[in-house]
Inverse folding.
């Protein structure tokens, strides 16, 4: 069971997850890239297995908003969306504009975790999604 993550469906029936801010990229990845797809969960778990049994050195997944690299060292999820708002063009010079733009970029664009934790999260997410799709 993945630690500290609360899985639920919103009013529109979309799967959602809440947890510690240190895992916000992981949670955003689940909501925006994996969504309700058990196929994506299976593919990612197959990638994990390939790394664990050493039949591959690394695997990569590119989603809607994130990219994932899985290797023996662990899993890295990187946000590919630039959240930074428009730069204030009222600043006096290019140096000020560049500094303002750099300051406005999101602080955390990458999340790293171990293979075991990532597998646990995927298994929980998949079970949660499949449980909702089972006949009542």
């Amino acid at each position: 069971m993945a630690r500290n993550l609360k899985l639920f469906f919103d009013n529109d029936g979309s799967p959602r997850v809440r947890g510690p801010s240190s895992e916000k990229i992981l949670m955003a990845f689940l909501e925006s890239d994996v969504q309700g797809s058990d196929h994506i969960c299976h593919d990612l778990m197959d990638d994990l297995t390939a790394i664990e049994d050493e039949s591959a050195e690394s695997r990569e997944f590119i989603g809607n908003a994130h990219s994932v690299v899985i290797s023996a060292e662990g899993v890295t999820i990187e946000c590919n969306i630039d959240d930074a708002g428009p730069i204030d063009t009222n600043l006096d010079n290019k140096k000020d504009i560049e500094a303002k733009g750099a300051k406005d970029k999101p602080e955390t664009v990458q999340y790293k975790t171990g293979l075991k934790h990532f597998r646990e999260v995927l298994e929980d997410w998949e079970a949660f999604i499949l449980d909702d799709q089972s006949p009542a």
Observations:
- Strands lie at 6-9, 15-18, 58-62, 66-71, 74-79, 110-113.
- Residues 6-131 form one domain.
- Residues 84-97, 102-106 have pLDDT under 50 and may be disordered.
- The first helix runs from residue 24 to 34.
